[in-house]
Each structure stands twice: as structure tokens, then as C-alpha cells.
Amino acid sequence: MIIKDLTPYIGQHCETTATGTLLKHIGVDLSEPMLFGLGEGLSFIVWNMKTMPLPFIGGRIKSDALTANIARNLNLELTINETSSVAKAWKDVQAAIDRNIPVGLKLDCYHLEYFTIKIHFAGHYVAMYGYDSSSAYLVDTAQQGSQVKTSLKSLELARNEKGPMSSKNLWYTIAKKDASVDLSTAVKKALKNNASEYLNPPIQNISYKGILKMASELEKWFHASKNKAADFQLMAVLMERAGTGGAIFRNLYRDFLNESYQLLKIKDIENAYEYFKEAATLWTEVSGLIEKAGRADNPDFIKEASQLLKQVSNLEKAAMEQLVSLK
Which stretches of the chain are DSSP H helices? Predict the structure, then answer.
């Protein structure tokens, strides 16, 4: 069974791509930066993971929250399902596809056969729009091939994987409600909510405080690494190229701010856009310096990256201060 009238959403980030595909199917077609912004997606976290030699660096809010925020801000009906039963997980998704309803899946990309870089990451999202006796038909990010397929067995393993960021065979659908929401109202609400969360981190390793923490500890991580080339290349890839839209999601948020300004014509949003435009450029410089440091085994690049991170923290804090009190 293949949903014939489905048009894949072409995106760089996995969750916005998966959710964007579901939204397009119900007639809601927004840019990827707009989806990321309406999802209140901008954040930052430094997180020690036992499965990684260095702390994980993330630039967005926690898994599962972005789609929930999009649905809430646009007044859409989001239905999320989880089960520990592999058989039920497949039966439920199969039934949705049979009713011409594409589904979003959260899974571990390690098991997907079209992934060339094998790393366990259980916070990956795809949209599923079909299946046959041996394969599942999926929409993934543009860099992964957009419309792809993987064996039903590999999909089962990916959905049922355990570990950090994993869920119990999670799948979701999105439907319209009777009442629609004005986009201007939704955008302003999302901007204020994201800014408020960003400016009030519950712990020191989140948002602008987390960026300062990274700046202060980066040199320590460098000297502690047993394989600097591999470790710091991976860190740079996760920040710049692994489905973040570049600059650890800052390019997406920068473009969301630009779209928001064009829509609302509020000076504070334009100011925040200018701050994030500079921050995004600096993030790309930081990831480049981190990769160079590992490859050359040279801590001077790390020291330079740390100084840039302090600038980034100040820029992002200033931008969010412009947005938190929007009228």
C-alpha cells in the first residue's frame, strides 16, 4: 500500500521534514524555518552521554516537543502513540497507511539501510507513506535522499531500539481541527514562548548559559580526548551538517526571524534577526575550528573557538531579550 497523492517535504532537519510531510498532506505548507520557529525549536544543551567520548552538543529543544509545539500553535490535532509491543506498533502504522494517512515515526537511524554513517541516534524522525511485503517507504531529509526505503525488519529494529532519546515505537499523525489560527498570532506567540524558555534555563548547561559552559570546558575536553581527530570531527559534524540546517540550527532560526519580520514588521524582530545572522556565522566558524583542532592536534584552534562561543552566547541572549516582550 502506497499513498499515491503524497508530496514529500524537502527539508534539512529530520523532525521538520517528517512533520512537514504530514502537514503538506493536509494542506498546510510552510517553509522549514517557519516550522522550526513555530515549534519553538531554538535552544542549546551540553549533555554528557555514556555512549559518546565527549559531551553531546545540541542546538534545539528536546525530542518530541517541536512537533507538539507546532500543532498547538497552529491549532492542529496531534495524535501520538507509543507501545512496547513490536507487533502492535507495526499493525497500528499499517492501519493508518491503509486509510491514506501518512505517519511520523521516531526511531534510531543506526538501523536504517540507506544511512551511510552508522551512529546510534534514537531521536531521528521520518515520515512513512507506504509499505509492501518487504520494505517501508519513507521521507527523510534531503541529504539522506528524501524519498527512501528500508526493509521492514530494519524499520522494526530502528523503532524498537533502546537507549538515550529513544521512545517505545513512537508514531504520530496530524489532522486539522475546525478552527484555524491566524499565522501572525501563532508566530508572535511562538517567538515569545521560545525567548522566555531560552532566557530562563533550569540548569547551567542549557541555552546561553550552556554555550558559556561549553566555552569554558572545551579546552578540557580537548586534552582529555584519546582520539582527537575522530572525536572533534564528530562534534563538528553534529553541529554543522548532521541535519541541523547548518550552524547548529541557527540558520533555520535566523531565517524564521526574517520571515517573521516580513510578516509582522516589528523592529524588535528585525533586531533579533540581525543578532542571529551574526551568531549563525560564528557557529559555523566554531565548528570549523573544532574540526581543525582535532585534525591538527592543535589547542590554539580550541582557544579561538572558546572566545567565539562567548560572543555567540551574548548575541543569542540579546536577541531573545528583544523577543520576550513583544507586544
Answer: 14-25, 32-38, 65-73, 86-98, 152-160, 183-199, 207-224, 228-240, 250-264, 267-296, 299-323
Q: How many CA atoms lie within 13 A of 261 on its CB side?
A: 16
| Residue 211: C-alpha distances to residues 152, 250, 295, 321 (Å) | 40, 13, 23, 16
Q: What is the pLDDT of residues 116-129, one digit of tens each?
A: 878 888 999 999 99
Q: Which helix H or strand E contains 133, and what residues bound it?
A: none
The CA distance from 106 to 142, in Å, is 17
pLDDT at 124: 94
**Closest among 146, 216, 205, 198 to 315, alpha carbons compared:** 198
Copy the grid coordinates of residue 148.
527512501
| Side chain identity, residue 169 | N
CB half-sphere exposure, 110, CA atoms < 13 A: 13
